[in-house]
Amino acid sequence: MNVGIIGAGGIARNMAETLNGMETARAYAIGSRDLEKARTFAQEFGMEKAYGSYEELVSDPDIELIYVASPHSHHREHMLLALEHGKNVLCEKAFTMNEAQAEEVIALARKKNLLLAEAIWTRYLPMRKFLDDILASGVIGEVRSLTANLGYVIDTVPRMRDPLLAGGALLDVGVYTINFMSMVLGNDFISFETAMIPIETGVDGQSTTVFTYRGNVMASLHCSQHALTDRRGMIFGTKGFIEVTNINNPEAIRVYDLDYQLIQEIMQPKQITGFEYQVQACIDAIREGSMECPQMPHAETLRIMSIMDSIRSRWGMRYPME
Fold this sequence. Notes:
The structure is a single chain. The chain has 322 residues and is an alpha/beta fold. The protein contains 10 helices and 14 strands. Strand 4, helix 4 and strand 5 form a beta-alpha-beta unit. It is globular, with a radius of gyration of 20 Å.
């Protein structure tokens, strides 16, 4: 399948590398506002076409899937552009700036009968299925609490600081902690409390949010653009606990009993970059005539966006474009 990429930044490079390692897809075209940048990108990754505008890219009749790799603030615009030109779309997380934008884009995809998927890669990785199976086995008993954190020293990256680019830690890294919680506990929490420290531009620098579920279950999530965290996800049960090493791309899942003894360990399968699973899910869905991927259906994307909207509302944080 021929894939066109909108945006020629770092995440686009990861995707191009991924596509070049797949048998079912290829990095066919790149679109950038800078033609020379697009040409350099295309040459590096052996792509057939390079375009100096996104409009030219989505007009290419040979492209079957568009991957949106632009900043969060532009996801809505670029997804709508691709869909209006009859292209299936895989868009980087966070899917949009807010839930209202997500609803608008999903509505157009359904009207056009096109695939639209969120590229939250942790939903598609094999390690997600392994974790589901461990939890279903009951080996750690009833889950009582969960913690997850993700942080990197990225507070000098311009897009992380800029409100006009929907910057801040929540949409960039906090989204992974929310997805981790969602995959384990679901989204039907009954309340939450949250605290955030902003940077001088007004976007969130770091935050911690605690969710309470029925049955006296709690989840504590932390994200930061100031500090490197251990990236762990911990799931605590009545018979033991589970440690997920690196919730951003799980490297290992370890299960411990009540005596802190390791009783099961699953290591990450060999991968190109890990992005290949979301691409393959899109290819499979397109071939089946589906408008969404079962790993991350539209309803789930909307719910995650709603959760992040609610958190930002508690903070009193709005982007200038809202």
